[in-house]
Design goal:
heterodimer, A: mainly beta, five-stranded mixed sheet, 5 strands, 11% helix, globular, B: alpha/beta, five-stranded parallel sheet, three-stranded parallel sheet, 16% strand
Chain lengths: 65, 252
């Protein structure tokens, strides 16, 4: 399926948000997720199903003042 | 003497808030943080670079240390965007403090007062510990306090300029008027600027570029730490009034 992650299309073979995080090998404790404009808590990743065309944002802390 | 800064019930061990952007490398950054004594560190929230996820993942360099995290809403141009970033930051589970930063013009990065006030109202009502970065306007700073800010952070001059405190009169009025802590944020360029901010009655300062881009960031971090101490003591001691004519200090 095609997922729009951080504004870019990705062809991924995944079923839930947890697998999206795993696909990109992200450090779980450091990433915050937003699906279709709604923040999804880390504890809900496994049960958050993803489907074709969904918009997902993956953000984290970076250096700043 | 217990002269600690307390914000929203949290007693801090330092009056320095330190930014984490633009250091030459993580090693120098960590050294500068350590020498500065700061326990509040600021961060920005950005999209993960999916081609290189570890590239900007700043927290991986800070494992094993306990700091108080102050994420900012930099990049926001409206209250709505700032509110979204604040909610994302809180979802990290790392902090419910938020530095509101809303700018419309990248060239000057001065805060948008109307949007900053709106975001402060909303986020304070949602239970965030809100620290708005704002222009040095006494009336606006007072309104931010009324809107629920836990501290107010007027800028000395535009972010990253190193121009110091352009309007010391306003900063002094603000520190006199507000009952919440005042943190002078942005534009400070050297230790003398930091001392001046503290002498004007600021409860703390927030620096990033002045330390990160100094020729020697670690030395500047130490200078700033000492400048805060000197400025705070000078403020508490109380300066003499300025006069036009001499008064002999030796007996005549």
């Amino acid at each position: 399926m095609t997922l729009f992650i951080n504004g870019e299309p990705y062809e991924l073979n995944v079923t839930n948000l947890q697998e999206v995080i795993a696909h990109f090998e992200l450090q779980e404790g450091l990433v915050v997720t937003e699906v279709e404009g709604n923040i999804v808590d880390r504890s809900q990743w496994l049960e958050t199903k993803v489907s074709d065309g969904m918009k997902i944002e993956l953000v984290h802390f970076v250096g700043g003042g | 003497m217990n002269d600690k800064l307390t914000i929203a019930g949290k007693q801090l061990s330092s009056r320095l808030f330190l930014g984490t952007g633009r250091y030459p490398n993580p090693y120098v950054q960590n050294q500068a943080i350590e020498v500065s004594g700061a326990d509040v560190l600021t961060f920005a929230i950005r999209r993960v670079n999916l081609q290189n996820p570890d590239e900007d993942a700043i927290l991986q360099h800070m494992e094993g240390k306990t700091f108080h995290y102050l994420p900012n809403t930099s990049g926001a141009t409206t209250a709505e965007e700032a509110i979204r970033i604040a909610r994302l930051a809180r979802a990290s589970g790392l902090s419910d403090w938020i530095k509101i930063e809303v700018s419309r013009d990248e060239k000057i990065l001065l805060p948008d007062p109307i949007e900053t006030l709106k975001a402060t109202e909303v986020l304070a009502s949602e239970g965030f510990i809100v620290l708005p970065y704002t222009s040095d306007d006494p009336a606006l700073c007072y309104r931010l306090q009324e809107a629920g800010a836990s501290a107010v952070m007027p800028g000395g001059s535009p972010i990253g300029t190193g121009l110091g405190i352009l309007n010391p009169y306003n900063i002094e009025i603000i520190t006199e008027q507000l009952s919440v802590p005042v943190i002078v944020d942005a534009g400070l360029g050297e230790a003398a600027d930091v001392t001046k901010a503290m002498e004007l009655g600021a409860d703390g300062v927030l620096l990033n570029t002045a330390i990160a881009k100094a020729r020697n960031p670690v030395k500047m971090a130490e200078a700033v730490k000492l400048a805060i101490h000197a400025g705070r003591l000078s403020y508490l001691a109380g300066r003499i009034p300025k006069k036009k004519y001499a008064t002999a200090s030796s007996p005549i």
